[in-house]
Design a protein that fits this description.
The protein has helices at about 15-30, 75-80, 95-100, and strands at about 1-10, 35-50, 55-65, 85-90. With about 110 residues, it is of the alpha+beta class. The protein has a 4-stranded antiparallel β-sheet, covered by helices on one side.
């Protein structure tokens, strides 16, 4: 399993229930591919620094995901096609960062300089 971080920005004009629906849908898609969502951090509605697609605000949500390589390809394609998602970014976390966050079990020991 690999650790990933996914940030989505949902359209600010959506209802709170629609945003929750996206959270549930993303979680379901990850679990359907054998992965798991470790954490979901809802940052709430924020104003953009600049206008994106004629929109000035959106709901920010960050997921920490554990999944096999390639398991999130369909999810990323769906996010790219969704009109309600203004932006998304999927990053593979380096193993040392995933371990530091507690996603890969025990934290990795820090190598001593010497």
């Amino acid at each position: 399993m690999r650790a990933y971080e996914l940030m989505i920005i949902a359209d600010g004009e959506l209802e709170e229930s629609a945003v929750s629906g996206w959270v549930n849908q993303i979680t379901a898609q990850v679990e359907a591919k054998g992965g798991s969502v470790a954490t979901t951090d809802k940052w709430g509605k924020r104003r953009f620094a600049y206008e994106i697609n004629k929109k000035t605000e959106g709901y920010y949500i960050v997921f920490e995901i554990l999944a096999e390589p390639g398991a999130l390809d369909d999810l990323e394609r769906n996010l790219r096609l969704a009109d309600e998602i203004v932006r998304h970014k999927l990053l593979r976390l380096p193993d040392h960062e995933a371990a530091r966050r507690g996603l890969l079990g025990e934290a990795a020991p820090v190598a001593e300089a010497g």
